[in-house]
Amino acid sequence: QVQLVESGGGLVQPGGSLRLSCVASGSILSLNAMGWYRQAPGKERDLVARITGLGSTNYADSVKGRFTISRDNAKNTVYLQMNSLKPEDTAVYYCNYQIYAYNAWGQGTQVTVSS
Question: Which pLDDT belongs to residue 53?
Answer without folding.
Answer: 87
